[in-house]
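Thread: Newbie trying to understand structure tokens

Hi all, I'm a second-year student working on a class project, and my supervisor (Dr. K.) asked me to get a predicted structure for one chain before our next meeting. I've only ever worked with sequences, so writing a 3D structure as a token string is new to me. If someone could post the tokens and maybe explain what I'm looking at, I'd be very grateful. Here's the chain:
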Amino acid sequence: MTCEGGSVTQLEVHDNSLIGSIPSELGSLSNLEYLQLHGNQLVGILPLEVAQLGGRIQASLGSDLCRVAPPGNYDLGVPDTQDYRNADLDGDGFVCSLGFTAGLD
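---
Reply by user tm_fold:
Sure, no problem. This is what the structure looks like when written as tokens:
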């Protein structure tokens, strides 16, 4: 997948049976205002580049506009590190609707 900033403001690919990890390249969508990836079978760690987008989206537009949490994405996590905590701009303990999980790296 190649993402080059561009003018994408909304990305809704929820409930599509996607499998694998979330590509870090999604973080290059600098104009993204709405991200929905829930209801798939995504696994691994939420890329920091996407987490940082989620923090920006949450801070400017509301916490439900960046959603990757279950149903579906049960094996997806957010590491409890300072970089990811910095992405939680509103300080609610969630990034893109995922809570921090100790022990992920």
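A couple of things are worth pointing out once you decode it. The mean pLDDT is 84. Residues 10-101 form one domain. Feel free to ask follow-ups in this thread.
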